[in-house]
Amino acid sequence: MFNRNRCLRQVAAIASISLVAGCGLFSDSGEADDSPIVVGTTSAPTTLDPAASWDGSWELFRNIYQTLLSYPSGSTTPQPDAAKSCEFSDTANRTYRCELRKGLKFSDGSPLDAKAVKHSIDRILKIKAPSGPAGLLGSLNRVEARGDREVVFHLKTSDATFPFVLATPAMSIVDPGSYPADALREGNEVTGSGPYKLQSYEENQRAELVTNDHYDGYAERRNDAVTIRYFQDSGTMVEALEKQEIDLTYRGLAADDIVDLQTKDADQTLQLVEGAGIDISYLVFNPRDQWAGKAAVRKAVAQLVDRPTIAHKIYKDTVDPLYSMVPNGINGHTTGFFDDYGDPDAGKARAILTEAGITEPVPLTFWYTSDRYGSETAVLFKELKRQLEASGLFEITLKSRPWKTYVEGYQKGEYPVFGRGWFPDFPDADNYIAPFVGKENALGTPYPAPEITQDLLPRSRRESDRAQVEREFEEAQQILVNDARLLPLWQGKQFIAASEEISGGERALDPSTIMMMWELGRKTSW
């Protein structure tokens, strides 16, 4: 029968999904079947080269590449993976040293040594791909390989978050013989050192993962193979689950499908698990645009957006309203936009515009991606258009593109206002602020914010105890509220729908809600 399972344990307020003993979906009892686990998701990779990816491609990378540090099940701080040990070797948090495990190899049997680690990090900065993760390495000065097993990272400034950066799939270690130092690797081949090898890959269709016999790390595989199927929409994915063509859905369940799964009849053999999420959705205003560049226009929009209606009407309460770029559950979270603007109010919005000398309806074009953040995205933007135009203060035009060309557009500064989602690189308030500010950021729209970039962030990064930097992040969030260049909309929840025979989901999500496929298993007896 269908059982909506809410036996959840949240660890350190991150989006780990856990079930206590007796919750049947993810029980470890029974005998394992070695047939591939088939996982469905709507989040397909945009690239297979880590140097080109600062997006959902990481969900595949986590399983086929290896990083110096990572997150064993239940851990909320980075632990050694390809490394035997890592630590700051000075009190200023500016020199970070890692010692590699002995005898590491890539999936093709070639050696993985300190030079390979240096090569992997250096090429990110040298290639500096427009959609790549070079922005995560802003504090890095240089990488030094000492012998075969020692790597030393020399930082420009103190950065207590650097271990978290090394634990992201962006810092995946690649084979120097297969990945050029100054260019991205072409084709669909991968040479990594993760728990799995990529046996075959069809873009936007499927990735077939098989055991990597050369893997040496903390992961204990509970299956021999995983097939990831990529879907264009939630409905098709759920239909495949109900037909037993896939075993589990991970990312991309639409609100209507979640509600439907919650109310299925008793003859269904599926279960749904709900957990807290730390992904966010937000709007970006381009300061170079004639209208979006005006603070009064941005603040008027902030005064009108009705987040509770969006959460309830569009997402059927499968998300929560968000009033800060740092979500609830992350240390330092505030509710700045609600504190400053309160409930939606057309009169207050009109006063903001009038005071700035704007008396005619403001024309704005809102852009969104048609195939990235779920089928509700188009409906969300229609609702935003309705809310803003109902005030009589705005004339909104909606436009969309598929993700690949959408990214190119906002990186070139083509969009006046555009929607983005953010799945964190690591669970720290720093990662909800630093990527979006500075001359070069993840959004393609320069945002100097010197008080944040030159004072608050550097000050917070000198503190290893992240619980001691709430004040810095509260101040940073208030600056973002005052500027209104980034407008948070909602904070997600995590939902996994699976057949009853799948185990391991309680361990399968790391602190950034990336699925560790090796934790999944199939049970044939109960």
From TrEMBL:
<dbReference type="GO" id="GO:0042597">
    <property type="term" value="C:periplasmic space"/>
</dbReference>
<dbReference type="GO" id="GO:0030313">
    <property type="term" value="C:cell envelope"/>
</dbReference>
<dbReference type="GO" id="GO:0015833">
    <property type="term" value="P:peptide transport"/>
</dbReference>
<keyword id="KW-0449">Lipoprotein</keyword>
<dbReference type="InterPro" id="IPR000914">
    <property type="entry name" value="SBP_5_dom"/>
</dbReference>
<dbReference type="InterPro" id="IPR030678">
    <property type="entry name" value="Peptide/Ni-bd"/>
</dbReference>
<protein>
    <submittedName>
        <fullName>Solute binding transport lipoprotein</fullName>
    </submittedName>
</protein>
<feature type="domain" description="Solute-binding protein family 5">
    <location>
        <begin position="77"/>
        <end position="441"/>
    </location>
</feature>
<comment type="similarity">
    <text>Belongs to the bacterial solute-binding protein 5 family.</text>
</comment>
<dbReference type="GO" id="GO:0043190">
    <property type="term" value="C:ATP-binding cassette (ABC) transporter complex"/>
</dbReference>
<feature type="signal peptide">
    <location>
        <begin position="1"/>
        <end position="32"/>
    </location>
</feature>
<dbReference type="InterPro" id="IPR039424">
    <property type="entry name" value="SBP_5"/>
</dbReference>
<keyword id="KW-0732">Signal</keyword>
<dbReference type="GO" id="GO:1904680">
    <property type="term" value="F:peptide transmembrane transporter activity"/>
</dbReference>
<dbReference type="Pfam" id="PF00496">
    <property type="entry name" value="SBP_bac_5"/>
</dbReference>
<keyword id="KW-0813">Transport</keyword>
